[in-house]
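Write out this protein's structure.
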Amino acid sequence: MEDKDRPKVSWRVMYRAVPSRVRWLIYLSSFNGVGYGYLIIMVTGYLVLPGVGLSAQDVGLLLGLNGMTAVITAIPIGLLADRKGRKGIVMFGLVAVPPALLVFAFTTDMLYLAIASIIAGAAEGAFATAWNAMIADQTDLSNRNAAFSLSFIYGTISFALGMALPFAFPVVQDWLGLTSHEIHTDVMLILGLVAFISPATLWFLLKNYKEDLHPPQKFSLKGKSTGMLMKFSGINSLIGLGAGFIIPLIPTWFLLKFGVEDSLTGPLLALSSLLMGLAAIVSSVLAHKYGVIKSIVAVQGLSTVFMFSLAFIPNAAVAAAFYLIRSALMNMGVPLLDSFLMGIVTKEERGLASAINSIFWRLPNSASTVVGGILLASGSFEVPFFLATGFYVVAIVLFYRVFKDVRPSA
């Protein structure tokens, strides 16, 4: 079908077509996301403040441990999800997050924070591996883009709520007479407990959910599905590698370059997440009108221009504006990429496909985040953006050349 011949469909109609159980899965998992969002800004924007105890290298190491654990656990968890069912894996991913959050509420000792980061990484690996496959199993080509878009929207909004909390901290501190350390840790404690709502409610939602279990599959690098997966994941690894140099460390970059603390960078990341969520609404409409591949390439290409420009901006306010635009554009393509991947692999291999794609993204991302922390600590505030831009450009060009004529089939 030519792009001009595609019938016009509103985003409201698209989202109404998402199965009810899938919508509730997305809604209820959001409680977990609020705590994780706050954890990100606490680690990258608060723990590196003078007197708290961690350096930029420490933050890079914590993020690297988190990512490496997700990588190491992804393959066995993905195989288990395909053979034993996605439900138990998703539940494990949700249950393991609250204890990890609670560790950050009680200590700033690097050893315990490292252990908590590893636990969170295992939870992330489990959840990410099975989540996409579970959504794909309950949708088809007519509503899958909308389902992944809705999942992305609620995920980014819940993250945004957690990241925005530090904006209110100065007022609350004066009102309650708390120190900065007390309010940061007290909020982490509350959110760690709130995060238990997600696994508790999803257990009831999925109690009667029956999955079609699949016999063990022989993994072959010569298979058609596997070939597509390896091409997709290989290109995606370049994005992960480039992003790791600076994107997870943006609050640290703002602090070290401009002196902007988490009371402002937290809301900035929150607003960024909200814009990403709103942008995801547009993504399914763009895909319907112009096609998935063209839409992904267009938004990622524009995003890269803004990311490159950040290296040259001397003003924090302008840098914040450019970062918001970059994030909205880049992440507009994420739900489309997830949906596209689930459509080019067989149903029996979706869990494994999610695991492999996660590994290919997180492994280089985790390594480059450690390097990015070292670069920022040394005062090299521009180099991470140059490195990220180079890898993004190569990845976007390769993605279009390889997949421009590929269409999802399942």
